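Lab notebook, page 48
Experiment: co-folding of the full assembly
Goal: obtain a model of how the components sit together before planning crosslinking
Operator: M.T.
Materials (sequences as entered):
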Amino acid sequence: MKPEALLHPTPAGLFCPIGGFHVDPVRPVERALITHGHSDHARVGHAKVLATRQTLDIMRLRYGEDFCGEEQAAAFGEEIDVEGVRLSFHPAGHVLGSAQVAIEKDGLRIVVSGDYKRGVDPTCAPFEPVACDVFITEATFGLPVFHHPDPRQEIDKLLTSLKQFPERSHLVGAYALGKAQRVIRLIRDCGYHEPIYIHGALAKLCDYYAAQGIDLGDIRPATIEKSSPDAFKGAVIVGPPSAFQDRWARRFNEPLIAFASGWMMVRQRAKQGGVELPLVISDHCDWPELLSTIEEIGPSEVWVTHGREEALVRWCELKNIPARPLHLVGYEDEGD
Amino acid sequence: MKAFATLLDRLVLTPSRNGKLTLLADYFRDTPDPDRGYGLAALAGGLDLKSVKPAMLRDLVLERMDEVLFRYSYDYIGDLAETISLVWDGGAKDVIDDDHQPRLSEVVTKMNSLGRTEVRSAVRDLLDKLDTSSRFAFLKLVTGALRIGVSARLAKQALSDMSGKDVTEIETLWHGLTPPYEPLFAWLEGRADKPVLATPAIFHSVMLANPVEPGDLEKLDPADYAAEWKWDGIRVQMSSYGGTKKLYSRSGDDITGAFPDVVGSINFEGVIDGELLVGGTARSNNPTRTFSDLQQRLNRKTVTGKMLDEYPAFVRAYDLLFESDLDIRAETFFERRRRLGDVIERAPHDRFDLSQLVPFATWDELDRIRISPPDPVIEGVMIKRKDSPYQAGRLKGPWFKWKRDPYNIDAVMLYAQRGHGKRSSYYSDFTFGVWAETPDGEELVPVGKAYFGFTDAELEVLDKFVRDNTVDRFGPVRAVRAERDFGFVLEVAFEGINRSTRHKSGVAMRFPRIARLRYDKLPRDADRLSTLTAMLDAKTG
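Observation: model returned without errors.
Model output:
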């Protein structure tokens, strides 16, 4: 069987005609496999959803009780049969609950890795390499310029700045699912135990992480009613980056804008976003991790999706690994 | 290197002046000698470092990297130094921890000791040993493109903040010291006495004036001030002591070699501040000639006999800083001027004269005088407090410049190019034109280029117009729609206008900038080339 017969791109997303399911579809479908809870991958309105328990929980938190018609939870490593196609979910190390999906039929196995990373992250299960014939990799940071440093070194920058500018409120931009909780956990691991204030958009997810056993320390809502603006002097406030352009941010004293993202590697990105303190912390693979993952798994073919596809395809060519770009649309950089 | 690189990374992204000062002062306080001194030199523009050509850097990176992957990377980042700093594959080597990376002082000493054939391997080796952000700082230093929004003045202010010493005191010493400025830091930290300058024949930071803003003068008593003409030449400083005679531009560049006629005529000792001009002194009864005549003598290392004959240079003296080796900068303007008058009286009459005072009783009277000066080479008046000491830098209060209002024309946007740095995603460099009679009828001819004067909000508008109305592309340049009844009219202000053989229109503007966006006008309402040539004629006539 040709791999394209088992799985191929369609306008709705990757589709398996034999099993009758899509992976991370961008529009409502009959049966969806969801790799993780970021909104460009996990959308509302599918009839049936198959995902890890945590991803289902996160979808419910974000979209409400009736986010889909019928849900089914997959445990890591458990084999599930759908119309004769064998499916299994494996940790992707991206955010809490994130999974790769292995799709197998007649001895041909395709792994859809979703978004993934290889760096250490205490807030989710680490990536597990799965042997396969076709490996579908993301390429969000698929250019040789991207090298993510040790995230603790980045947090040290934040802690140094807090000492250097003790009167300023340090606003750390971090996406609500995954990055925010990871950043808070990292700040704790670097020895900072003051209260951390969070934007309302983060509250439910932070509570969920804590309920899943990820200790975030003393976190408090960043609401002005309960305290004077002086309360936020020299404090760390974590919120979604979009909130910092909003009137919401005006309540803080001389805010100093930090942003935790892999994009912060690029000075121009930081500058254009008005970011004073870029923290290069990513939940995706950097370039060396993408390459080493492909080398480690050793698939006979690589399909490349969302991100800078052309550079990774070029690298595969140079290594004599058959590779093609999938040109899927609808996946943003939201996860980072 | 690491501390300097971290400082650069923060400075680039810190918009507030106070924030920058905190970062700079912390750096100077925490970084050991001699590294901080070289860092200071790099920021203040005084670092002498062997430069490296971008082509060599590109060769070095392609030794290790696929060309296509490099191109993708460079296209994405858009800055060569940053791209190389990011893609450089030092991965094969052990990562060197921060404490053992080459220090800034080592890098400077090493680079400056290299022979021509050694540069390539030394740069490769340094790139291997530095981490990403230090590589970036290193590449910016050796390619001479350190653009981080820190002026020499701001760096000196940070030294003042860190030490509590007065910034004018630091300015006064500045040009007598060289990197890595160890005696300066020792004094700032109270570990040594104030450094003593060896000779006054060095460059001393000049005193600058602020433009007159609305409301400035009403608060001041005209009796406290004197006025003199502001001549359209270049500001210079002459230093002569113990047989050493030097001519410096206002930024401290040594231009002695290009003006042997002036320097050779110096018969005094001391330091004089004045205007370099071409033509005859007032005492020789020959007219002062225009800036475009002076330009024939500028930016040259040497000068021919013919140039000396055709474009004789002289200095119109404004001020005296040192009388022989005596520092008189703390004296009043009038006292310094009195002594300056004695020096100039004894100096050769064809090469030196004294700037004349312009008598006035009220600000209104001075305003009328300013608008219609008696000589076309005058560009306004200078207003100086009679009791002002000579203080380096641009202090608000003691000195003002009050220029004739700049010229204005309405021109049509013809081409646009993307800017650099913060503006790299905007079309922010605009070529504009005016109507001219050509063999093919009336056409728009380019007359200049401007890339500032507009607000960020206006830039959004301009950028959108370019993107929506592109008719052609030439590499990075876009041609935009510019027809009689459709196009974008820009009001362009400029300081002066000269004849030019280089531009097709035959004129060249000085300091053109976009004064206003004229949404209210159509291209057919824009000015004609004849308006510009009339300005030329008015000026020379």
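Interpretation: Chain B touches chain A at residues 9-10, 12-15, 19, 22-23, 26, 65-66, 68-70, 72-73, 76-79, 82-83, 86-87, 91, 132, 421-422, 424-425 (CB under 8 Å).
Next step: discuss with group before ordering constructs.
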